[in-house]
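TL;DR need structure tokens for one chain.
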Amino acid sequence: MTSRTSKIVWSLSAVVVLTLILVVAWSYHVGKMQGMWYRWTGDFQAFAGAIQRGDVRSGDSTSRLHALLGPPVVPPLSEQARYRAANRKFAAISPGEYPDGVEDSDTFEQYETGGILWSFQIRAGRIINFKPEHLVPPKLLSGP
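>> reply
TL;DR here they are.
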């Protein structure tokens, strides 16, 4: 093999390896891109995409949620008590939607998009009673 051919083979190999590294890195961060876009814009579609593509589910840690969406809004203690009371009523009406129930130690963290606060119920640093498929775009909540 000539010196020139050897250089071409090594250059092409380096390009292929670099491309593979970039594809793997991009694949790893794809779920986080939606979260970054939500943090910058507050866009509902980015919020929903970050939740669904980031695969946030009940039982996941709040640190995973924070890594995906940034720091939450934490309501004051008086509001936390109101959220617990409301969730207790909802859980009594529809226990299947609230399989973890509501305890006095539960807290709530929120994210804002389009003027709507989306609440996550937290117990011992874990998300509970949450189903990503329940995210409804704000235009559907506000009517026609």
